[in-house]
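Fill in residues.
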């Protein structure tokens, strides 16, 4: 059986598209309506491709299913912000280039891709970092006074414990976001920012 080799293109919104996808011409059609954009978001995946169903893609159907499962479980994250990669084709492109050409393409979500294109990545991540830090500090302040109230009125201990669990969960998310963004900024400064300087010189 002859397998179809994927060929990729990234549009101006940072979305990875496969040129062998049966809907590729629709993907690249300019000036789409809001309805067409929503439709594109649904079918911009290997799972809407005839090569996936025929199992004649370079990536076997079973492997695509495993990658999609990992993506949905948020095991595959953007190297710059730590958010889940929203599009399966972004991951497929990275894996293909690594397997075929031994080139490691970093997994970057569409939001970060857009901010890299308009060179606002550092500014945006700085604002997001500040937001998460403020959120975490406010939650610390609130939990401190809530804890004092629990100690004063023992009837609320059970409610307080439930609230503490909820607060801990939310705080851990803030801390993870802060750490991911810090790592993403380091990655940007080490690789992307440096490559832009090298190109200019």
């Amino acid at each position: 059986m002859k397998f179809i080799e994927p060929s990729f293109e990234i549009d101006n919104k940072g979305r990875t598209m496969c040129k062998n996808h049966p809907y590729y011409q629709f993907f690249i059609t300019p000036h789409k309506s809001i309805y067409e954009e929503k439709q594109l978001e649904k079918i911009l995946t290997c799972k809407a491709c005839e090569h996936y169903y025929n199992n004649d893609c370079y990536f076997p159907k079973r492997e695509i299913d495993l990658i999609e499962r990992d993506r949905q479980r948020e095991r595959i994250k953007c190297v710059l912000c730590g958010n889940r990669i929203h599009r399966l084709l972004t991951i497929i492109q990275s894996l293909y280039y690594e397997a075929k050409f031994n080139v490691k393409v970093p997994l970057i979500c569409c939001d970060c891709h857009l901010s890299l294109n308009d060179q606002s990545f550092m500014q945006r991540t700085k604002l997001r970092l500040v937001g998460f830090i403020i959120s975490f500090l406010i939650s610390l302040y609130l939990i401190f006074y809530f804890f004092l109230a629990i100690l004063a009125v023992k009837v609320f201990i059970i409610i307080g414990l439930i609230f503490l669990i909820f607060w801990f969960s939310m705080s851990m998310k803030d801390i993870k976001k802060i750490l991911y963004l810090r790592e993403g900024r380091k990655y940007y400064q080490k690789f992307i920012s440096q490559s832009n300087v090298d190109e200019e010189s």
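Helices lie at 24-27, 34-43, 50-54, 61-72, 88-101, 110-117, 121-152, 157-200.
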